[in-house]
């Protein structure tokens, strides 16, 4: 018994005696960092080859809930697809790809089956042309099978893409409305002649919000096959502590899109937040940032500068 109460220090003392560090006692797999998917050493060449493209990704747009997944995360997603028989010879539909998962999947398919790259089809739908431009450029340079299309998920899925895909992959906005809408568009795009698969990446939430998230999946007729907490790692995504969960879902016969036509409501996090006032440090002019404000994000405000004096330093005042 210690002054602060009982402490079970025997384990630490034993570890010290045996010369074991805290890392040595970590039960997570060192090879896969606890994700369940290891990247073998032979993949280092592929990682080095893809690194320049990932480093060239444009800056994220917070208004679109964008965040850059790591190169290793994109490859782990591709490796998981490969391990489940969901990559080679399959038709993939990717909705929203600031993570460049499509590029990693196409590159891996080309590495594993270089003479059969045309059998794997990857269609990317993205609202931000900056990402599409880079994806097209890199895919063409590598001779990869990758199609891109500028698309806003608030619009119905183009007829040409209905019931065409075997696998749907998405990292949707961080709202239940955005989640349900993106999954609905994915259901429109999946060929329903047999069981199809969905890979969904979404931030880990408190229990009640996780229940709402999973209820939204079930409401669409999707069953949860596997859950990988902490599978996805991000650069500087403080909103969800730089990690998110990977869900492997399957489409049941009861599955049906909840949203058919044009979506007219908020789907992005920033659209749900009341506008906040910011004051220019130079001239004290105030502007509103957020929903119904003069600027959507603080980044937009700083980029444009103060409307009155052009200053770029602002203080948060309040709602």
Care to describe what's here?
Helices cover 32% and strands 20% of the residues. The chain is an alpha/beta fold and 319 residues long. The protein folds into 2 domains: 41-251, Rossmann fold (3-Layer(aba) Sandwich); 273-318, no CATH class. It has an 8-stranded mixed β-sheet, sandwiched between helices. The longest helix has 14 residues, at 129-142. It starts with 9 loop residues before the first helix and ends with a strand. Residues 1-8 have low confidence and may be disordered.
Could you outline the blueprint of secondary structure elements for this entry?
Layout: H1 10-18, H2 22-25, H3 44-55, E1 68-69, H4 71-83, E2 91-95, H5 101-112, E3 121-126, H6 129-142, E4 147-150, E5 167-170, H7 176-189, E6 197-202, H8 207-219, E7 222-235, E8 243-251, H9 269-272, E9 276-280, E10 286-289, H10 298-304, E11 314-318
Descriptive keywords:
319 residues; alpha/beta; Rossmann fold; eight-stranded mixed sheet; three-stranded antiparallel sheet; 20% strand; disordered N terminus
């Amino acid at each position: 018994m210690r002054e602060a109460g009982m402490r079970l220090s025997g384990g630490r003392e034993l570890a010290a005696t045996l010369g074991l560090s805290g890392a040595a006692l970590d039960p997570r797999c060192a090879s896969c960092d606890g994700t369940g998917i290891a990247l073998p050493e032979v993949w280092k060449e592929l990682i080095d080859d893809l690194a320049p493209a990932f480093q060239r990704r444009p800056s994220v747009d917070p208004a679109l809930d964008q965040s850059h997944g790591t190169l290793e995360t994109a490859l782990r997603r591709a490796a998981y697809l490969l391990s489940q028989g969901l990559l080679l010879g399959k038709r993939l539909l990717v909705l929203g790809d600031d993570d460049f998962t499509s590029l990693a999947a196409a590159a891996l398919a080309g590495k594993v089956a270089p003479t059969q790259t045309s059998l794997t089809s990857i269609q990317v739908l993205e609202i931000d042309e900056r990402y599409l431009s880079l994806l097209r450029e890199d895919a063409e340079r590598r001779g990869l099978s990758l199609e891109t299309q500028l698309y806003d998920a608030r619009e119905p899925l183009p007829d040409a893409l209905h019931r065409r895909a075997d696998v749907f992959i998405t990292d949707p906005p961080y709202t239940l409305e955005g989640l349900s809408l993106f999954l609905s568009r994915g259901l429109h795009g999946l060929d329903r002649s047999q069981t199809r698969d969905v890979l969904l990446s979404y931030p880990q939430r408190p229990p009640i919000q996780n229940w709402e998230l999973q209820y939204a999946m079930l409401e669409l007729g999707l069953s949860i096959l596997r859950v990988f907490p902490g599978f996805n790692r991000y650069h500087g995504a403080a909103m969800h502590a730089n990690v998110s969960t990977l869900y492997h879902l399957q489409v049941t016969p009861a599955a049906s899109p909840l949203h058919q036509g044009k979506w007219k409501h908020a789907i992005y996090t920033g659209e749900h937040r009341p506008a906040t006032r910011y004051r220019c440090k130079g001239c004290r002019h105030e502007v509103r940032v957020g929903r119904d404000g003069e600027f959507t994000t603080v980044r937009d405000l700083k980029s444009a500068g103060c409307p009155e004096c052009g200053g770029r330093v602002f203080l948060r005042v309040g709602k």
